[in-house]
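Colleagues,

For the teaching module next term, I've prepared a clean inverse folding example: a structure given as tokens, and then the sequence designed for it. I'd like students to try predicting residues themselves before seeing the answer, so please don't circulate the second half yet.
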């Protein structure tokens, strides 16, 4: 297959709406399919929406092997810059899993970010840290489709390059010490049962960010990919309220 070809369902979405821009970020080894329900709702609500397919994702896991965490950051930064060029005066970032990690990085580096919404964000993964060493295989079985809702699956890689796991660890190690530099409003969602990212990740982020306005919302009926699970309506409702509230404050 052509290494540059995005598989069906993993396409990016860029829609120009009003002056409020929403950057939507998917997770590690995943695709835009996992967060598309959010992007489509925000687009319908009139917001400007940027939902990139992160570098190395949505193609083939061998393509992912060639990319670094800095490439993932660059993908997110480029999408944020697209919103700025569309004259968005208010900027929000919402991210699932590693997308939440990237949202934290961008919020710490870009002071024009109005607020962030995180869904089962990853900041420390002990199981991944155990994979360090020369005796590991080149590719590992990926963990995906951690979804409670029956009959729903996530479009993601079945295998993950070991070097990509190491890149994710580098990203989290860079973001974690800088959490107390984040001051913008933060809305955090955490699934009470998550088989990919331990829920204490979200609790640590909530306690460490220096945001004056922050809230932790528990998802009682979803696993890791909550954006495709039973609590999607709650996530949509609370994020739309969050965007409206802090757009009015800034306005």
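(Answer key — instructors only)
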């Amino acid at each position: 297959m052509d290494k540059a070809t995005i598989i069906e369902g993993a396409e990016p979405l860029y829609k120009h709406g009003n002056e409020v821009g929403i950057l939507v970020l998917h997770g590690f080894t995943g695709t835009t399919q996992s967060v598309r329900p959010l992007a489509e709702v925000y687009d319908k609500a009139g917001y400007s929406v940027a939902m990139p397919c992160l570098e190395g994702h949505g193609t083939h896991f061998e393509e992912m092997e060639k990319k670094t965490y800095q490439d993932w950051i660059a993908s997110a930064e480029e999408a944020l810059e697209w919103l700025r060029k569309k004259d968005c005066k208010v900027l929000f970032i919402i991210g699932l899993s590693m997308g939440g990690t990237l949202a934290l990085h961008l919020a710490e580096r870009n002071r024009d970010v109005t607020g962030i919404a995180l869904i089962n964000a990853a900041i420390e993964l002990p199981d991944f840290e155990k994979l360090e060493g020369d005796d590991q295989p080149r590719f590992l079985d990926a963990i995906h489709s951690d979804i409670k809702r029956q009959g729903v699956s996530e479009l993601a890689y079945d295998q993950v390059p070991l070097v990509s796991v190491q890149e994710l660890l580098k990203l989290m190690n860079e973001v974690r010490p800088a959490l107390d530099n984040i001051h913008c409003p933060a809305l955090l969602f955490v699934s009470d049962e998550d088989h990919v990212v331990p829920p204490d990740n979200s609790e640590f982020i909530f306690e460490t960010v220096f945001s004056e306005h922050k809230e932790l919302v528990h998802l009682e009926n979803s696993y890791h990919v909550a954006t495709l699970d039973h609590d999607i309506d709650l996530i949509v409702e609370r994020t739309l309220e969050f965007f409206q509230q802090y757009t009015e404050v800034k306005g």
